[in-house]
Specification:
The structure is a single chain. This protein has 13 helices and ten strands. The protein is α/β, with parallel strands linked by helices. The protein has two domains: about 150 residues, Rossmann fold (3-Layer(aba) Sandwich); about 110 residues, Rossmann fold. β7, α10 and β8 form a beta-alpha-beta unit. α1 packs across α11, α2 packs across α4 and α5 crosses α7. The model has no long low-confidence stretch (mean pLDDT about 95).
Length: about 270
C-alpha cells in the first residue's frame, strides 16, 4: 500500500500540541505535519489571505498522498475550513476530507460548565469570525459564550518568551478582560493551539473552580470517533507508525522550537511553497 498519511496543518508550531495527542491516541497511522511558519501568525490576517494560504498547504498535503487533513489551527478552521469543504474539495477530489478543531470542541464544551457561562481565549481572527459562538449555539443554545482576543500570546510562545515576566503581564491583562465580561464563567477554552504552553500561568490568573480546556485531547478523541464512523476514510490511511515534519521556514529553527510543543525532538525538512 502506498503512503497515505494523515495530514496535520498549522500556521506554525501550535498544531504540534494537537499532533502530540493524536499520535498518543492513534499511534498506528502515518502522519505528515506542515507548519507554515514563514507566514505565521495567521491570527491577524484577512479571511481571504488565511483561506489562500490554508488551501495552498492543504493541496500540498494532498499531493503527498494524504486523503484526510486536520487543520490543527483555530484561525484556519474559522476562516478557511468551510470554504475549502464546500467549494474546493468537490473540485479537487470528493473522496478527500478536511477537518477542523472548532466543531469537536463545540460539541462537548457544554459538558464542563455548571453555570452555563464559558469563556473563549483566541486570536483576533478567530474571535472576529464568530465561529465559536455560532458552533456552540448549535449544540448548547442555552450557553452564554464570552470571547477574549489575546493578540500577543502566539508571538510570546513562538518567540520562546512564554516564561518571561512580559508573558505574565499580557496573560493577566487578557484574563482580567475576559473575567470582567462575566463573573459566572466557570469553563475557559484555549481556542488556539499555541496556548497550552501558557496553561500554568493561565490557571494562576483564574479562580480555582474554573476549568481550563485544551484542544489536543478533544481533537484526538474526535478524530478516532470520526475514523470509527467512516471506515471508507480509515481504510485509505496507511498504518506504519511513521512521521514526517515540514516547515515553510528554517528547518533548523523549527526543530529547535518544536520539541517544546511536541514533547520530543523532531527532524523537519524545509518546504518552499
Amino acid at each position: 500500500m502506498k503512503q497515505q498519511p494523515i495530514g496535520v496543518f498549522d500556521s506554525g508550531y501550535g498544531g504540534l500540541t494537537v499532533l502530540k495527542e493524536i499520535t498518543a491516541r492513534l499511534p498506528q497511522y502515518d502522519y505528515i505535519y506542515l507548519g507554515d511558519n514563514a507566514r505565521a501568525p495567521y491570527g491577524t490576517r484577512s479571511f481571504e489571505t488565511v483561506y489562500e494560504y490554508t488551501l495552498e498547504c492543504v493541496k500540498w498535503l494532498f499531493e503527498q498522498g494524504c486523503t484526510l487533513v486536520v487543520l490543527a489551527c483555530n484561525t484556519a478552521s474559522a476562516k478557511a475550513l468551510r470554504t475549502i469543504q464546500q467549494k474546493d474539495l468537490p473540485k479537487i477530489d470528493a473522496a478527500k476530507r478536511v477537518l477542523g478543531v472548532i466543531r469537536p470542541t463545540a460539541e462537548i464544551i457544554g459538558q464542563f460548565s455548571k453555570t452555563g457561562n464559558v469563556g473563549i481565549l483566541a486570536t483576533n481572527g478567530t474571535v472576529i469570525s464568530g465561529s465559536y459562538p455560532i458552533e456552540i449555539k448549535k449544540f448548547y443554545p442555552e450557553l452564554h459564550v464570552f470571547q477574549q482576543a489575546c493578540p500577543l500570546w502566539v508571538q510570546l510562545v513562538e518567540n520562546n518568551e512564554y516564561n518571561s515576566p512580559g508573558a505574565d503581564y499580557f496573560i493577566q491583562k487578557n484574563m482580567g478582560e475576559l473575567l470582567h465580561q462575566s463573573g459566572q464563567i466557570d469553563t475557559i477554552l484555549l481556542a488556539c493551539t499555541h496556548y497550552p504552553l501558557l496553561i500554568e500561568k493561565i490557571k494562576r490568573s483564574v479562580p480555582g473552580h474554573v476549568t481550563i480546556l485544551s484542544q489536543g485531547e478533544i481533537v484526538a478523541n474526535s478524530l478516532k470517533d470520526y475514523l470509527d464512523r467512516h471506515p471508507e476514510i480509515e481504510a485509505n490511511c496507511s498504518k506504519n507508525g511513521q512521521m514526517a515534519f515540514f516547515t515553510t521556514d528554517s528547518a533548523e529553527d523549527f526543530d529547535s522550537h518544536a520539541a517544546v510543543f511536541y514533547g520530543k525532538l523532531v527532524k523537519s525538512a524545509h518546504l518552499a511553497l
